[in-house]
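A further point concerns the way the authors explain their paired sequence and structure data. Since the whole study asks how a given chain folds, the encoding of that fold should be made plain. A single example would do more here than another paragraph of explanation. An entry of this sort, consisting of the sequence and the corresponding C-alpha cells, reads as follows:

_____
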Amino acid sequence: MSESPAIDLSVVIPTLNASAHLPASLVALTAWPLASQIIVADGGSEDETVSIARDAGVTVVQSNRGRGQQLAHGAASAAGQWILFLHADTVLQNSWVEEVRSFVYDANNRDRAAAFRFALDDTAGQARRVERMVAWRCRLLGLPYGDQGLLIHRDLYNKVGGYQKIPLMEDADLVRRIGKRQIHIFDSAAVTSADRFRRGGWWARPLRNLFCLFLYICGVPPRWIAKLYG
C-alpha cells in the first residue's frame, strides 16, 4: 500500500492501565500517517500507559476515570473534523486506511457514522462463534460496540449529543442516538484482545453482555448495569 497523506482526522483512545495492548494499537495507526492527531484520554493509569503514548508522539489528556467521561473529554480535545474513537486493546487491519479515506471523502457520509468488523486475536473456534454473534447483533440491531471503533464527523457527533458520562453502555447509547440506518460497517476488522472472553468464559461473557444490553434497552440505569457487568 502506498503512503497516504493525513486527512482531517483525530483518533481518540481511552486508556486505563493499557500498557500491554496500547503499543500494538498505536503501531497500526502510526504505520500509515492518515490521522492528523492521536489523543490518549487517560483515566489515571498506574502502569506505563502514559509514557508509552508520549514516547510514540501521541497527545495525552488526563480525564476522570470512566470510559464515557474519557471519550467525551478526548472528543472535546480533538481538532479534527472527523473523529475515530478506538479502544486501547484494538488493532486495525491495514485495509482500514483506504476504507476510512473513502468514507471521509464522500460528503454524504457527514450524516452517517461507521464501525469496523469485529474480530478477536485468538485462533480458537470459540472466538469465531463470538465474532458471528457480534455480526448478528450488528445486522439485526445496528449496534456495534466500542471495540469496533466509531468514525463520525464532528457535526453529527455534536448534533446527537456525543458520548454521555455514564459508567457503562456509552457506546450503545451513542449509536442508538445516531440510528441503525446511519451506521455503516467496514469490511476491515478491528482485531480486539480476547483476554476478557478467556477470563470470563467464551459463553458466559457474551451472554452477560447481551443481558446487559437487554437491561439497558429496557431502561435500567447504566450505573446499576455496571454492577452486573463486572
